[in-house]
Amino acid sequence: MSTPLPPSRLSGLFRRKSLDDILHNPPADAEGHGGPAGGLERHLTVRDLTALGIAAVIGAGIFSTIGNASHDGGPAVSLLFVFTAIACAFSALCYAQFAATIPVSGSAYTYAYASFGELTAWIIGWALIMEYAVGNIVVAISWSDYFTGLLSGVGVNVPIWLTMGMQSAHKYYNEVLALMQAGKPLSEASAAQLEGYKAWSAAPEIGGGLRLVLDLPAGLITLAITALVYVGIKESKNASNLLVALKLVVVAVVILVGAFYVQPENWSPFAPNGIGGVLKGVSAVFFAYIGFDAISTTAEECKNPQRDLPRAMIYALIICTILYVIITLILTGMVNYKELAVGDPLAYVFNKVGVKWLGGVVAVSAVLAMASVLLVFQIGQPRIWMTMSRDGLLPPVFSRVHPKFHTPSFSTIVTGFFVGVPAMLLNMDLVIDLTSIGTLFAFALVCGGILIIDPHGQSNARFKVPYINGQFLVPLVLLVGAGLLFMYNQAGIREFTQAFSSYEEGRHYIPMLVFFGFCLGLAWLSFRKKLSLLPTLGLLTNLYLMTQLGINNWLLFFGWLVIGLALYFNYGFKHSKLGLKKAAAVS
Fold first, then answer.
1. 532 forms bridges with which residues in the sheet?
2. Which residues pair with 44 in a beta bridge?
3. If you ran DSSP here, which 8-state letter would residue 236 be given?
4. Three-state SS for 532?
């Protein structure tokens, strides 16, 4: 093993990899050492990449979280999907330029290494671990809920203590006990609380007051998907293409049939809870989009990454946004938005209007759709770990490539473990916003990276973000935004100013205060440096969406980053190949 760098050499925190270093970083062979023998195989075309993007985006969002978002914001949530897609589009253009410039695995981690430096690259790589792993925990739990519901519908009942995480069951059991001890009737308990109580009561004891309660289907689907990803990218892409074709057919049927049951009066009022109600669904809506960047992690397995990756990202984003907007309008047109706070909104609305056969088809397609999301994320995560390991920031074993299957074998197994075990034990509500904040952070850094490496659109990359001079446009956009805020969100402004009467209330708006300061700084920089408009707007919109996720999510996010920084300074900084190379050059 190479001699570690002295830990005092903090000047290396912002060392950046040159394009030549990135493009010529040798792949790992089967034993985890440099060499071409274990390179990844190139099988993916633009069609395959677009399908992977659709597979990642059309999943839990369209079959689950879209219901609660519609309940909070009404039909106007369709506009939130458009707004979020625009934010993603700015990011997608920046991702596309990076993908055309740096066609290797690693996604935003690799891009940050080239633009911001090693410390930022590590931070974003660590955030992406949270995005993919934690996001897949949510998807696995959602898949289990749909799957067990589907089995129940055909008369196959899985024991209740094998369908729920231990954390949820224990929590609900204690809540029902407290209710009973207070002398209140069980009718006051929610359905979820009663389910948890029954699961904990029926489960076998394992000692220490604990009971064997676990979400077995969530663990099994993670195991099956991990095995598929381990076997090879060709098999994975074939499975992805098939699943995407099936769920697009179902979505098309849902739209065509649902259109006949739309009652336009359900669209009035269009935004019943105002802008605040619409924005309340930001985390749920954005959660629907978090997967499109996973396409960029497959760069080394694309036949023509510099051409196909940019196209696939944009195609997938456009197709998915159109589908989400139409589905939202169909849902809110078929029933009143107040009825949509359910876990399976598509199945619910068709059962409500009497088309029960389609409700069953939706349930089946949801199982397939969520499996495809799980597949894409399980493909993306190991490739980020593999790239970080190639750079020396993680142990060499993470870059080991299987000699037969040509996949990052060890990283794939670790990813399966990191997703499968928590999915069997944890509560889904804990992690949705945490996933969104990690993704938005990655998107913001990618947009900022373009402002560093190509602020004036002069790159020779095969694809680049169109340059529009933001010298006057960025300040103008911010002024117009402020004006619209004062005109149409007086209630929100009053709530914002009154909140600072106490720290407990005011702390929730600290991210927004930081954002306002960032807007002023970026407006000044744009005026002085004539920065490119689209990456600047991408940076601003992603940061704004981050402010909507609440201070508690920020605290959890910073806690995750502290853990990551501890690992970096205890291993990655000392064993960085770039650092060792520069140290050798100096000596």
1. 469
2. 302
3. H
4. strand
Determine contact, residues 240/375, Cβ cutoff 8 Å.
yes
Assigned token pair, 155: 């008369």
- In angstroms, the Cα distances linking 374 to 57, 135, 144 are 11, 9, 12
Where is 206: in which H helix or E strand? strand 205-207
Q: How much is the CA Rg of the chain, to the nearest whole Å? A: 24
The residue ranking higher by pLDDT, 97 or 17, is 97
Max mean pLDDT among 76-90, 163-177, 461-475 falls in 461-475
Nearest partner of 331 among 319, 321, 339, judged by Cα: 339
Q: For residue range 268-313, list pLDDT tens digits in order.
A: 888 777 777 777 766 667 666 766 677 877 878 888 888 888 888 8
Rounded to 5 degrees, φ, ψ at 310 are -60, -45
With contact defined as beta carbons under 8 Å apart, do 288 and 88 qualify?
no
- The whole-angstrom separation of Cα 549 and Cα 546 is 6
* Three-state SS at 28: strand
d(CA 283, CA 288): 9
459: Cβ–Cβ under 8 A, 6 or more apart, which residues?
97, 101, 453
**Residue 313: in which H helix or E strand, if any?**
helix 305-334
* Six-digit token string for 264: 């336009």
Residue 391 backbone phi and psi in degrees, to 5: -85, -5
Preceding omega of 217 cis (within 30 degrees of 0): no
Report percent pLDDT > 70 for the chain. 88
Which stretches of 60-183 are DSSP H helices?
A: 60, 66-73, 77-101, 107-115, 118-153, 166-181
CA 320 vs. chain centroid, Å, equals 15
User: Beta-carbon neighbour count of residue 583 at 10 Å?
Assistant: 17
